[in-house]
Amino acid sequence: MTRAGPEFRWLLPSAVADPELPGDRVRPRRTVRDWVVDICAFLAAALIGMLTADALGRTPGHSDTVLLLDQLVGAAACCAVWLRRRRPVGLAAVLAVVSVVAPVASGGFLVALFSLAVHRPFKPAVLVVGTLAVASSLLQPVVRPDPTTSFLTNAVVGTVLILLVTGWGMLVRSRRQLVLALRERAARAEAEAALRAENAQRLAREAIAREMHDVLAHRLTLLSVHAGALEFRPDAPPAQVARAAGVIRDSAHEALQDLRQIIGVLRSPGEGADDRPQPTLATLDALVAESRAAGMKVALDSRIPDAAGVPAATGRNAYRIAQEALTNARKHAPGAEATVTVTGRPGEGLTVEVRNPAPPGPVPEVPGSGQGLIGLTERATLAGGRLDHGRGPDGGFSVVAWLPWPS
């Protein structure tokens, strides 16, 4: 990848810059732009050479033979300009030496020097050839003196002209480096923006999937428990069948409402997607009552005097953790009594602990994704807390979560 030169390193995060530009290397075929530029360079060299030849023709002391040789050498120098892309350093060095004895070649030499400054870094090529060019401008008045002007005038004019051409070429190169640096920064910014958007979409999908799992798993587990009871107890009393059917109906309705809410988030994010009230720690009693209504043994030990005073985000996370832990206990330890303990105070954090002993009888094979506890751990970590889970020595299972509670 092409990078900007050292003078533009502040534009790029990398500390190393490659001074090479796209036009520094010879292209297999000249483009239309290359032909236009090369023709203009040839015409500029020819114009400078003709002006120099005309000035030499009006200066006394030059024979016709010398002028003819100057013109031939100048024409060859103009034709050599077409080689400036392949051999910029060698061409500029040779024309610097030739222009000492043939001033008409100065046009081709200036064009070659300009091309060298554009397509090569300042060190070492431009510096070496530039020094040789300044030396040739000082030697030319000695080898080909002009009786109408002094040596100092010729030397100063030649040196200033060489410095101007070299500086102009370096300016063009610097501008090209700046354009390339800005293009690279723009391309990198677009790539980073696309990456950020993709990452944001991924995080949103993970959040929605985690919320769907936490919300729907509890409802669907209730449906599974009561449907299984109806399947294995077809001779149950009508009152019990009616109660189980009512729980199934209510759970299906709640699951449908939760699913409709999440789909609304996907369809129109940010437009009334959160119409239903979110659960908090104060609604934990309702969760326990719902689990008891499903036939599960649950003991709640809440040591929070004012559950409504817990921050909404902390209470919602605590509710979801208890909900998922009760769902797992109902699936994997049916018949065992689960204990939900909530403790904490502002400044010390909120602790939610759900424990259940080993199931009293054989446990039916219940399919599961295994992502519930992983999702709880991610939820607690994102909230700034932590979550531990595992089996105890008695074969039971425990889930302990700590969530921050600012004072």
Main sheet strand line-up:
1-2-3-5-4
Along the chain, the helix and strand elements come as HHHHHHHHEHEEHEE
Please summarize the sheet with the most strands.
Answer: 5 strands, mixed
Radius of gyration: 43 Å
- Characterize the overall form: rod-shaped
Q: Residue share in helices?
A: 55-70%
Structural class: alpha+beta
Uncertain segments are 1-18, 270-274
Pfam family, one: DUF7134
InterPro entries: DUF7134, HATPase_C_sf, HATPase_dom, Sensor_HK_TwoCompSys, Sig_transdc_His_kin_sub3_dim/P
Domain Signal transduction histidine kinase subgroup 3 dimerisation and phosphoacceptor: 205-269
GO molecular function: kinase activity
3D structure, described in words:
This protein has 407 residues and is of the alpha+beta class. It folds into 2 domains: 6-193, no CATH class; 280-407, 2-Layer Sandwich (Heat Shock Protein 90), CATH 3.30.565.10. It contains 10 helices and 5 strands, in the order ααααααααβαββαββ. Strands 1-2-3-5-4 form a 5-stranded mixed beta sheet, covered by helices on one side. β4 (386-391) and β5 (397-403) form a beta hairpin. α6 (151-232) runs antiparallel to α7 (238-267). The protein is rod-shaped. The two termini are 53 Å apart. Residues 1-18 and 270-274 have low confidence and may be disordered.
